[in-house]
Amino acid sequence: MFIESPRYTERLGSVRLNHVQSVIALDSGLKNQLPPHSAMGVVKIDEETIKHYEDRMAIVIPVKDEKLKLFEGVVSGVPQDCLVIVVSNSQREKVDRFRMEGDALDQLCRFTLRQALIVHQKDPAIARAAMDADYNDLLDEDGLVRDGKSEAMIIGLLMAKAAGKEYVGFVDADNYFPGAVLEYVRNYAAGFSLAQSRYSMVRILWQYKPKISGILYLRKWGRISEVTNKYLNSLISTKTGFETEVVRTSNAGEHAMSMQLAEILPFASGYAGEPQELVSMFENFGGILPTKDIKVMEQGIDIFQIETRNPHLHEEKGNEHLNEMLLSSLSTIYHSPLCDEELKQAILAELIGQGILKKGEEPPPVYINAPLKKGKVLQLVEAIQSDFDKYHVLH
Ligand code: GDD
Q1: How many A from CA of 342 to the centre of ligand 1?
Q2: Which of 70, 72, 247, 337 has the fewest C-beta atoms under 10 angstroms from its C-beta?
Q3: 250 pocket-lining for ligand 1 (C-beta < 6 Å)
Q4: Is the pTM here over 0.70, yes or no?
Q5: CB-based contacts of 9: which residues, under 8 Å, 6+ apart?
Q6: What's the gap in Å between 148 CA and the centre of ligand 1?
Q7: Which fold does the domain 2-391 belong to in CATH?
Q8: What are the CA-CA distances from residue 393 to residues 113, 114, 123, 167 (Å)?
Q9: Structure letter (DSSP) for residue 175
Q10: Inter-axis angle of helices 68-77 and 178-194, to 10 degrees?
């Protein structure tokens, strides 16, 4: 593929946050050379490189009661060499949707001879393993893994580690275009190939997010991301003294990270996960607050934001859902020790203006799952490994 080279990098301590890079073309052919003219600022990522990273990557698909056709389409879009890991929180009573997902996955894997794992978020074996490893953050009052997309991501990360993968990418299960899924994963691979550090992250920016209301309208910005981006950029600006627009992917559900980075990041519950990842990196490695992890400070963290060619069409889940997402996203910034009083007031005004909070209310702090390193992660991973056959679709 051809992709814009990273043009400008914003540096906050050890965090290297690259401005958006657009995909120029999805394929770059077998010829080795870049065309002599007009190649300035364009990087060619060859097929071999993309396959190198795909082979080392697990793609985690969190799913909760999505249409089966959409789920099948998403799985069919994941490149063959990636390990597919489905973490489901779908219903089991009456209609056993988890079983239907397992059957569909099994069939696709048989047709294509591919590897895949599937696990239910409420599987007591996972909760027991977490408890034994002192990773109780993940558990609710019933002693099972808590609900939430972030919690599914953590289970996916653990399974990917158990399978020996070096990179993990996330793709939502409600995407209408399998071709877009294929592009996300190729973009993940492209980003990782450009990283200097072992701690790296790739976040996807959709070129368009279509909305159908009578006519097809190719909307560029989602309601939530636009607002969260603004306040995350303000958070950076208040520290550097220079206004910036570098953050364009604060709520990127589609994103990927190296296992080394995944292990040191806290994961905020539910949908606050994606903005919290950025906030936590700024807090822990932004050079403003003290850090304990000197090794990471030395290597630095590379973050790439890649704009797709494909538009992103997914299930719309209503206004209330969007309000909740915005509240938890802005809460990650509001409660950060980096957030000064002026920015707090601006966030409050935004949430009151949008009718999400009333005067005098504050955003409730989001629940944060500690970084995996804090638990006895190896013990947890070994427990999952010992049960691996159970999760394997082709077993
Ligand atoms: N396993 C599991 N457990 N999966 C879940 C859960 C859960 O508790 N809740 C949601 N999911 C799955 C959904 O089935 C879907 O595949 C994916 O997680 C995203 O959830 P949605 O409810 O569809 O979220 P969204 O489309 O509104 O928001 C997405 O895009 C945002 C950016 O626009 C998410 O990826 C957000 O995290 C992201 O910020």
Answers
A1: 31
A2: 337
A3: no
A4: yes
A5: 16, 17, 18, 19
A6: 8
A7: Spore Coat Polysaccharide Biosynthesis Protein SpsA; Chain A (3.90.550)
A8: 11, 10, 16, 21
A9: B
A10: 40
